[in-house]
Design brief:
It is a single chain. This protein is α+β, with helices and mostly antiparallel strands and 61 residues long. The protein has one domain (6-60): Alpha-Beta Plaits (2-Layer Sandwich), CATH 3.30.70.20. It contains two helices and four strands; from the N terminus they run E-H-E-E-H-E. The strands form two sheets. The protein has a two-stranded antiparallel sheet. A two-stranded antiparallel ribbon has the order 2-3. A hairpin with a 2-residue loop joins strand 2 (28-31) and strand 3 (34-37).
């Protein structure tokens, strides 16, 4: 089974870091003021990042 595809829509991201804080498997890191997907293989598809992002910048496919 392949890992889910996790995407940050950079033009929507305001750098709040909520996705970084809520991700239980540390899929994200902040790079300056933009969240980046750094460990997509660790994603368990819990959807906390997408559900909690106030700017709709995170998509889990």
């Amino acid at each position: 089974m392949s890992s889910p595809k996790v995407e940050i829509i950079e033009s929507y991201c305001k750098g709040c870091s909520i996705c970084v804080e809520f991700c239980p498997t540390d899929v994200f890191e902040m790079e300056g003021f933009i969240a980046k997907v750094v460990r997509p293989e660790a994603c368990t598809k819990c959807m906390q990042c997408e559900l909690r992002c106030p700017d709709f910048a995170v998509k889990v496919h």
